[in-house]
Amino acid sequence: MLRLFSSAASQPDRTPGNRLASAVTARFRKLDINCDLGEGESPAKHRALIKSITSANIACGGHAGDLRSMDQCVRIARSEGVNVGAHPSYWDRENFGRVAQELSPVDFEMLLIHQIGGFERVAAANRMTLHHIKLHGALYHAVERESALAMIYLECVARFWPKARVFALAGGHVAEAAERHGVKVWEEIFADRAYNPDGTLVDRKKEGAMLTKVDDVVGRLLAFTETGRMKTIAGSSVGINARTVCVHSDSENSLRIAKALSGELG
């Protein structure tokens, strides 16, 4: 696991709406490494990634995945002592769940019940518990933009999966609202994504949005573990409070990045 430090001078600012300005609250904290899996990666790559992470976000039929892939992912994670979580998304394989869609409250609830509920059954069949839930792609960002969707999401989690935590954008609306709904949350940063000065992610379509050089990724995360501040695309830095860091399995050099983070920062 990554180790995260903060100095006494960088204590969190709890002002509502200013959570991104907060640094890490604890003097010493372990940072979970998570990865999106079951998205069509080869079995060899899947097994290799599992060995370098501590939590697996497993696609459950929306943008990718099926019963067989979920079962295989859970079995491998169990053999390596890795946490398993559901990775639900829009029902959109054509666009890999990365295009926003209109979604009614009823349809959103049913999406969650189908995908997370189905995954939970697969996990239970392998004597694993649902550790966390992390939305995928455009849906992950939709709940950050639309408070009504965020409320439905968190109320559904609180009612049907009260023991699970959600992985949510560090400093975002969902992370803040989760506390009010009694939902456990692990705030998330991204190893392979560039950040804007306000702490949001740079749009994937923009140049420099995806980080692929292993040394750059590791260097930025090392600096983050020492300061609680993330270097931005503008060259500045922003304070972020995080509990878990994501490596996308479909990113260029994802396996090398995961191995480096596990090895250099473990």
Write the layout of secondary structure elements.
Elements: E1 2-5, E2 28-37, H1 43-50, E3 55-59, H2 67-80, E4 83-87, H3 105-125, E5 132-133, H4 137-145, H5 147-160, E6 165-169, H6 173-180, E7 184-190, H7 214-227, E8 229-231, E9 237-239, E10 244-248, H8 254-265
Parallel strand pairs: 2-3, 2-10, 3-4, 4-5, 5-6, 6-7, 7-10
Antiparallel strand pairs: 1-2, 8-9
Write up what this structure looks like.
Helix 5 crosses helix 6. The protein has helices at 43-50, 67-80, 105-125, 137-145, 147-160, 173-180, 214-227, 254-265; strands at 2-5, 28-37, 55-59, 83-87, 132-133, 165-169, 184-190, 229-231, 237-239, 244-248. The chain has 8 helices and 10 strands. Helix content is 38%, strand content 18%. The chain has a single domain (2-265), classed as Glycoside hydrolase/deacetylase (TIM Barrel, Alpha-Beta Barrel), CATH 3.20.20. The strands form 2 sheets. The protein has a 7-stranded parallel barrel, surrounded by 6 helices.
